[in-house]
Amino acid sequence: MCLFTDLLGDPLCRIRNSPDFLMLTATGSGGGGGAEIIGLVRGCVKSVVSGGSHSKDPIYTKVAYILGLRVSPNHRRKGVGRKLVERMEQWFRQKGAEYSYMATEQDNEASVRLFTSRCGYSKFRAPSLLVHPVFRHALKPSRRASIVRLEPRDAERLYRWHFAAVEFFPADIDAVLSNALSLGTFLALPAGTSWDGDVEAFLAAPPASWAVLSVWNCMDAFRLEVRGAPRLMRAAAGATRLVDRAAPWLRIPSIPNLFAPFGLYFLYGLGGAGPEAPRLVRALCRHAHNMARRGGCGVVATEVAALEPVRAGVPHWARLGAEDLWCIKRLADGYNHGLLGDWTKAPPGSSIFVDPREF
Fold first, then answer.
1. Domains and CATH numbers, the chain
2. Which SUPFAM superfamilies match (predicted)?
3. Tens of pLDDT, residues 52-97
4. Per the confidence metrics, is the pTM higher than 0.90?
5. Which of 263, 251, 127, 103 is nearest to 183 (CA)?
6. Rounded distance, CA 189 to CA 8, Å?
């Protein structure tokens, strides 16, 4: 089986919302004597919080993200991918990026080998992609949690306060939260906790437990499709949907039709504090599931660090997820961060911020 991505006619959909972005193509001689595209790569540049930052004094670093590297099967093992990466890195340096990083699945040996053995990248972080199907029936809201929607300005204040020391937190979080694809930021509090809409008062005296997340509409940017599935698997998945449709009160977990183009909502900015934070995150995920159901999505997904404190509260199906690998390379020659030094050698933090614009 393989996962096919339909970019809906926009090859820049995964980077065009970033501050600076570029797509490069490699061409070769076609069979008819003309030129044909044999490879492509995309990249973007932005400022993010780097490792070793402190909440009172975050260190922002200009980083580049490289993604979507593709080479025609007939032209692989000929250095095309490496040349595309090197040309993209030249543009990164022109934009002042100090680091370049990429993401792939841990079991993608060809990609890992290209970047680590030939392009000078080192293995850096290993977040997990957690995916949950969207059922035909809605999930009951939690009675033990109150969920409020935050305005983008209030969400920005909360995020800058909570994620100030979290790796890869973007300096332009305001642009992320106000983007048309961002469907809202939601704060969960224990049931009965008073909320008067004053974020400043919340930051000055936060409750014992709370949680937050935002929802990004990937469905309007691209669609996914699982291809090559056995007929028996497709039939079994269809049967769960039939039962769920006929008897929704049974609340049987039904598998959406992932074998036709489907959309997803991406949950970003997951965070919280207190002993009840994982439970509150679970309530937020149920809320996001129902949003995705109304939006016609097939799955909801998020990506979290291995030691993320609220990870236990994220419902997911292990068979739908993946273990990712982020590799990083230092582009700048000097060290501009004093005691921080080389970020590539910094130990991982408990959390990581995954920018939805490049998911």
1. 2-126+323-358 (3.40.630.30), 130-320 (3.40.630)
2. Acyl-CoA N-acyltransferases (Nat) (SSF55729)
3. 666 667 889 999 999 999 999 888 888 999 999 999 999 999 999 9
4. yes
5. 263
6. 38
